[in-house]
Write a structure and sequence with these properties.
- It contains six helices and nine strands.
- It has 187 residues and is α+β, with helices and mostly antiparallel strands.
- The chain has a domain of 126 residues: 7,8-Dihydro-6-hydroxymethylpterin-pyrophosphokinase HPPK (Alpha-Beta Plaits, 2-Layer Sandwich), CATH 3.30.70.560.
- The strands form three sheets. Strands 3, 4, 5, 6 and 7 form a five-stranded antiparallel β-sheet that branches.
Amino acid sequence: MSGSGATRSPQGRRFPRGRDTSPEARLVVVGLGSNVDGPAKIDEAITEISFLYDLLARSTRYVSPAVTADDERDEAGIGEGASREVENYSNAAVLIRTAEDHDAIKAALGEIEAQLGRDRSTPASVTIDLDILLIQDEVIRVGSRVLVPHPDLETRRYAAIPSAEVAPFLRHSVTEVPLSDLAAALA
């Protein structure tokens, strides 16, 4: 991994990064999901994240059904969804502290996804998916679309509940609603 903050021992073993004490550091909630050997891939991803960032908390792993484009069309009342066999997801969240900006965090998470075998050409099989769900007091937009806080944070249990477990005190950067209240509304 490029830019790794991990320390290597003389024997080549890596150690977690340790505390990020820079004054610019802020809290970031990262969501993890997998439907291919989910528990193991989530554990591997959390280990890799700990080599790069100050890992403050990790949530319990949750199991949730896959949300497909057909499910979203059905929820919107657009039409009948075809039934598909899609594996359930394992989901979790971690709370990290970093001074890196959104783009640097996103790039590092993308490297971890690639290292753990993420293949975007097979969308039904997600080895690992790492998403920035929230950056403390920040809103990241592309045009009129809000990327961070992640839109699923307010509408999907698989994002809200693990996030509230690791950082119940953090507030959604747009609505100012505490993560604990977002999760309670979806429970």
